Structure formats: C-alpha cells, structure tokens
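Supplementary Note 3. Input sequence used for the single-chain structure prediction.
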Amino acid sequence: MQKTWMAKWIVNPNFYGLTPINVFHKEHAAPLYKLEDHRDDLKNRHTFFRKVFDVSDDVETAYIDISADDYYKLYINGIFIGQGPAPAYHFHYNYNRYDISEIVRKGKNVIAVHVYYQGLINRVWNSGDYRQGMIAEIFANGNMVEATDSTWKYQDIKAYGSGETTGYSTQFLENFDSELFPYGWEEMDFNDSQWGNVLENINDDHKLFLQETPPLQVYELRPAEIHELDCGHFLVDFGQEITGQIKMSASGKPGEIIEIRCGEELLDNNLAVRHQMRSNCKYQEFWRLSGRMNDELEFFDYKVFRYVEIISPPGTINRNSIRAVVRHYPLDESKAQMVSSDSIFNDIWLICRNGVRNCSQEGYLDCPGREKGQYLGDMMITAQSHLYISGDLRLFKKGIRDFALSSYICPGLMAVAPGSLMQEFADYSFLWPMQLLIYYKHSGDIEFLKEMYPVAEGMEKYFRKYRRGDGLVSSICDKHNLVDWPANLRDGYDFELKNPGVEGTHNVINALYIGFMEAINEIRTILGIPYEDEVPILKRAFVKAFFDKYTGLFADTEKMSHHSLHSNIFPLLFGIAPDDAKARIVEFLKAKRLSCGVYMAYFYLKALAKCGEYDFIYSIITSKDQNSWYNMIREGATCCFEAWGKDLKWNTSLCHAWASAPIPVFIEDIVGLSPAKTGWEEVNFTPHIPSDIKNFELKITVKTGEIRVKYENSKAKMIFLRHNDNLK
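The predicted structure, written as discrete structure tokens, is reproduced below.
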C-alpha cells in the first residue's frame, strides 16, 4: 500500500525546480532526451542533510521511515543505521523502515543522511532524471517527532571529486579528499551553522511503498593477509571476493597522496593488483590527506574485489585500520549447509554460494562490478540458488515485481529492471511466467499470483503479434534474441543474432515461447481461469519446422543445416520432442557436454534431469573439462565466474551468480527435494545419488521449515522437516 506522508520531500537547492527527464523508452526507439541534456555539474553529487530534533519523553519504541533518490546512508546520534533504498521506478519507489528504539533518546538527537545522486544512464539506479533528495519521518512512542521540511540543513560535499567513470558508466571513481570532508558531521556537537537550508519539492512525483525486502547486511571484514612489499607499499588479501569498499585511516602531511588499487586478481608474480580488470572495470583511486591525525577513508560506492594494493608515503598508513566494509542481502549461512565426501563438489558448492551471496544485493545483480544490474535471465538461476542458501523468498518476489513494473515501458517486459538503461531480450521475457510459477510453488502465495497474472496476460497479447500462421513466432526484431552468451559459446548456432533482431524464424526463441505459453496456462489452471490450450498446436508446429528426421535431432532453423546443443535442450525440457527421438537427443547432448555458456548450463542440466540422467549430470557438474566449474577453481575462483574460464570471454567477470546452477540442480534433481515435498515431517525417500558420493549432509531452510538430509553408505535415506511458523 502506498504511504501518505506528513513529511516533505527535500532537495539540494541546485535541483529545485528542475523538470524530471523521462528516461524510459523502447531500447531501439529514439529516447525523448539526449545525454547532453543532463547538466554535467549535477552529476556525481554528494549531499549531506542533517537535523537536530527533540524527544520530550523517555523512549520505549521508535522507528524511522526514510527514502532518498538515488541512495542514502543514514546515521542517528552518530551511529550508522542503514542504507538504501533498493533501486526502483519513481512510480513505485521504495522506502525503508528501521527500528531505532535503542538509538533515539529523551532530549536532543541528531539525524544525518548522506544522499548520493549519480546522474548517469546505467543499470544501477533510475538516475539521470533529475530526481534528487530525500524524505523521512521519525516516530517515538507512536508519535511523529521529526519529519523532513525546510528547517533541515544541507551541505554540498566536494570530497568525492572525480570525473572518471568505470564499468559500463556504472560508477564514478572516488578520488577522496580528506581536507574537503567534514569529519564528525553525523555527531550531535558538529557545527552546521554555515550549512544552507534545504528546499521542499512540492512537485515531487515519487510514489512510495514500504520496501518488501530488508535493508542490506553491512559489516566490516579484516584482511586474511597483509604484505608490506616496500616501505608504505601494501598488498592486502581478503581471502575471497567480496562486494563493498575499502576503509582505513592514515596520518600524513597536507596534500600527500595515497594510491589505492582494487582487483580480483594479481599480476607480476603476485606482487601487484590487476586493477585494470578483465571485466572492464578500472579500480584505481587516490586519497589526499588533510594533515590531521588519523584521516579516515570514507568511500561511498562499492566494488567487487579480493585484493587491494596501497601505495602510500612511508609511515602514513595505520596498518591495523585496514578493513573492508562488506555489503550484501542479509544471509544467515547456517541456513544452507552442504558437506559431502566429494571434495570437488564441496568446492563447487562453495564458489556458487559465494557468487550468489555477492551478487544478491538489493536485487539479483548479474555482477556487482561492471554492470550492477538485475537481469531477468540471470534471475532464473540466481533466485533459485539464493532461495535455497537463504531460506528467504522476499528478494525473489521483489525481483518478479520489478520486472512486472517494467511493463510500463513495454508490455513484453525489459531485460533489466529497474534501471535507466533500456535493454530488451525476448528470451528473458519468456522466462518471467516460469519464474512466477517457481516462486508460487515455493511460497504458496496465491494472492501474489493473482496480482501478477494480468502482466502475464499482457505479455501473451504483446508477443502474439509476432506469430505466423502456424503459431510459431518470427522476427521479434524489437528485442534482442540472445540464445546464449557470450556468442562464442553458442555451439555454432546457425541464425544471425544481432541487436536489434533480424527477420526470420529460429529454434530457441520458439522453444522458449512454448515454455512461456505453457507456464501461463499453468497459472490459469491454478487460478481457475478458463483458456484455450494452444500449446499442443505450437509443439506440433515446432516439430514440423525444426525436427530433422534424418538425424533425429532438432535444427537451429528450418533450413536443417545445423543442429546445436541449444536447439536440442529445450525440446527435452518443455516436452516438445517426440518420444521416439528423446534417446537420440539425450545421446547427442551428453556427447556435446558443456559446449555452451554457464547461463545455458542450467537448462542443459535440467533437460537431462528430466530424462533421468542423474549420474551424468552429477559427472558434468564435477567434471574437470575446460568448460566446467572445476576449471573456475583451477583458475583460482572463490566465486563462480561469468564464463567457464577467464579467457573464454573478452571481459569476464569473476563474480557472476548466473553460474550457480549446481545448487538448485543438486537439491531438486539429484537429492530430489522439490517445493511440493515440503509438507513432510519424516519420511524415507530415495534420492538420485551417484556412486561418487558415499555420504553427505544437507540442511536447507524453506518456507515451511528446516529440511535435513543425511545420506550414508548408499543406505540411509532419511529426510526430516521441523515446522516453524516464524520463518519468512
């Protein structure tokens, strides 16, 4: 429900009176704006807001509702409270609620908020639209004791000076100047008499809804190792990839410069950080000291990194102060534990879990470095992995809603949501109803299914215009037809895949369309909505168009000139293939192994599991081929990669959760725990455990309780469920 606020939306006066820029458009339609329309002086703007307020009585309970555009970090009485909100479209924008009962006290209190407006068109926030500022209301003992209005103070902060961006215009690098930073600004006794007064934006058009996910988990992490390579030259290793920022203190002469390089890998015999990363991010920043004792480095934005190289004047760095401020969606790692007798599988599980943890921020990011965007295709895999390692469905639900809201831009949905960069992939759109069904089967949330159904219905109507006479879709040219990524891992798929799309009819997009229609029909069945089932007609048309009776395989196009791995995965997965052809297709897929990208590997494994090839899919998960999860480990992974190896893609991210397929495939297909089985209290069952595993213990938390599976010596096959009504 949208909240009615007594507080006013307050802004830095530099943004007052600006008409919001409409950044939304179809990807290949001319936008209504030009990039040069946005004033350069209003990009990369850090604004501090603060207000001293009184509470007249002893505080028993207190909370704050707060939002900001693009992003805030909140302090009360000098204590960090949290940050947010999750990125969102302005017409369905998030606000956060924090319990501050232990922070607010009788008498004077101070609230201080660091608000950042980036101003770029990218996948991170819905920025570049001139919407800036914040809103907040504080309640104590049930009464509002403070609300944003024109009495609040603000200060432009120039300490984050940088004109250079990194990634895909993903973030501004922060060359931090301690001399320009007002240390202590979040404390009660800070003198803000020279600060200006904010303005109230009475025309603000944010529609605010309580964020359905909790704020991020933020904590400090000490390095695993620190090596001093030379006097003042440090190499810091956190032991694994993390998302966050580096933090430290230093004392030096006024104007002395410290160089900070972050990266995922080392160079030069492990004596330097590869800060010009293969993923197209350059993490090189400079810190200018003020001359005071113990300047604190206060980076705002986050990166993905494992290593940090610090080049400083001798004697300036306080070595014991070096730490990382880590951020990710709240994760209790005790809720999903896997220990098996197969050390290779244990290592694969670990890198997949770490990748999912790092990429699960306020949305399911494809990577927390180069793009920081939530992609609908990536979410198909990441969301399922995340729900098993976290026992938490809220981020999945939010992601489904995010993409549903993108129907405001196109009824066929966007590939990235939210975000001000417009991208559209037909393949990804067809996955949305399937994801909605997966969420429903885990949650039983029938009301959400009803709420989302009109979006699915609108999608069906949208894509119907691309159908030819036999029902197959052709020439979906307004959306990219991706098939798989990168292009060199498409197994020679014989159809010209360009963005925008090209004329013609091809296999994968039609197979996904059939899966899309089947999912919508299943939703209708659950909701009791009558429909005419066209899926059998579509399947017959697909077989007629793409099945090569001479090879017993499906071809990429109607020319029958090439039979790729990809063109034979989905006919098995969606039950399109004739029964007498399945054995031949399975044989073909097994021979091809993982001649695809890590994204397509999820569907590959699922298709083979549907045909009962459990031993084989486990052998593929744990194989030592070049295209394998083990190859990532062989190349030093602590998180799953974007591709099978560092050099298999020109800009490989070394933290990419779409490669986490072994988690849901192992749980659902090898162990055999499907959402429908979470009503058990205690039952014997037979999982599909390959002989490579002699024993394992698995614990996962689901909506209805905690499942423990103990498997020993191929004999003990027991599952226990402890019901817990308090689980989310």
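DSSP finds 13 helices and 35 strands in the chain. The radius of gyration is 27 Å.
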